[in-house]
Amino acid sequence: MRFDTCDNPKFIAGHNNRDKIIKNKNTMAKEVTKRSDNYSQWYDNLVVKADLAERSAVRGCMVIKPYGYAIWEKMQDVLDKMFKDTGHQNAYFPLFIPKSFLSREAEHVEGFAKECAVVTHHRLMADPNGNGVVVDPSAKLEEELIVRPTSETIIWNTYKNWVTSWRDLPILCNQWANVVRWEMRTRLFLRTAEFLWQEGHTAHATRQEAEEETMKMVNVYADFARNYMAVPVVVGHKSPNERFAGALDTMTIEALMQDGKALQAGTSHFLGQNFAKAFDVMFTNKEGKQEYVWATSWGVSTRLMGALIMAHGDDNGLVLPPKLAPIQVVMVPITGKDEAVNNAILDKMDSFKKELEAKGISVKIDSRDTLRPGFKFAEWELKGVPVRLAMGGRDLENGTVELARRDTCEKSSHQQEGIADVIAALLDDIQSNIYAKALKFRDESIRKVDTWEEFKEEITKGGFLLCHWDGTPETEEKIKEETKATIRCIPVDSAVCEEEGTCIYSGKPSSRRVLFAISY
RNA sequence: CGAGAUGUAGCGCAGUUGGUAGCGCACUACGUUCGGGACGUAGGGGUCGCGUGUUCGAGUCACGUCAUCUCGACCA
Q: pTM surpassing 0.90?
């Protein structure tokens, strides 16, 4: 485990009342847990304190607050464009699925049955005993409805009517939706009973085309994670044990969190003809023969929010990559008694704001006059705003401003002239810096391990272990039982993986290494 | 569903051998402040999770119940 702290002593130095600062530091220490003390608590704490989300009155369900939702919306905007650029269209399918649909595909039902919410009645009535309302027994549904845990079944039942000829293919649809999976234990963003996601569902005439689609979309996710979230990911295939229920192959992007645990951040499934057969979706091919359609599905969820928080956050709060930050620059005026000076500062800030907005940079001027600057600094750091600009009476005289970057907490003084260009460059630099930092951490956390003894020791330290595996589900299961570690993926892309060796657990021969970790 | 813990103001907590509820933060008003989480003064806010019992009297004791959290099993 490793944490980079950002406890800059400059924040304290020079203040004329050290006792007060220390007192306040203590107060904060109580409020915000440090990562090294308790990583889970730090995470939960941060999600709430940074105003991203909170627990709701409904068991296992969260309220995503405006600031958190704004980040999700930015993610949606980028992903939606990427989907459309790769030829997909949005559509919407029902929240409810007839219960019988779920059982059409045997593995699928087995995978999801345990976590489905079921609608049994369509009406309530006043309780005859006077205790509020009860279900109206006469309103029992003929066929019960499942609240979708994922939409393959309802969608493939629909696609049946959309496809008759090879000319109708491919179908490339995506939907933005909520789904419900009744989990035993929940954590904000990482695992909630209801969550938001997108699910792409495509239908193809050939196996090859569907396999290419599966690969294409996992690469879209990897691209998004790396270039927008600034989170490095490993792309690979899931082992049969970890595969999506009903898929022939599941591809995944795996990210590493700062506590050394892995997080599955997105998946893309090659479904073969399983759902086409279950829902009887056939087409006439160019040769005039009847054939089952080939399918894929792929999704990312609000879990990405969790990945974002855990990949970059520090003991001062959230650290947002500029490309996804709802507010990229916050301006804090340092005001005093002189109203003329205060107004001049705010006027300057307004002009900076216009310049920045012309460059497509989002800016907030924090002109709340009942709060002191120090409080605002701390608050915007907690919320992860990439760049802060502060300006007071002295700056006004000198023609300068102070810039602070969230990723390193470094402060610097700049001339007002050309400040928009400086900030634009700084945002780019922050984006690449936090990626570089996360990449360095991730790369340093990948180790090759060749003996079982070493494996048991190393896995407790967190990170990814590259090991030989004999390819059997039994061995994977044993390793999981003894160490809690699972195969996160069989990496597609790594030259280091492809070498002969012997399975770490069984000693049987293996032709390539796979990636193990303890995961969320 | 197995093991453990906790429910007292919006949040975090204290509350002694049972005697009628308090602290910090937050909140409201006014004033002084404002370059790293300000200070003063004055305020407001509670079915002590719920129920039953013991008692003259229950936040406190007993039994029951509900909820939440942590750790397991399950999962994007």
A: yes
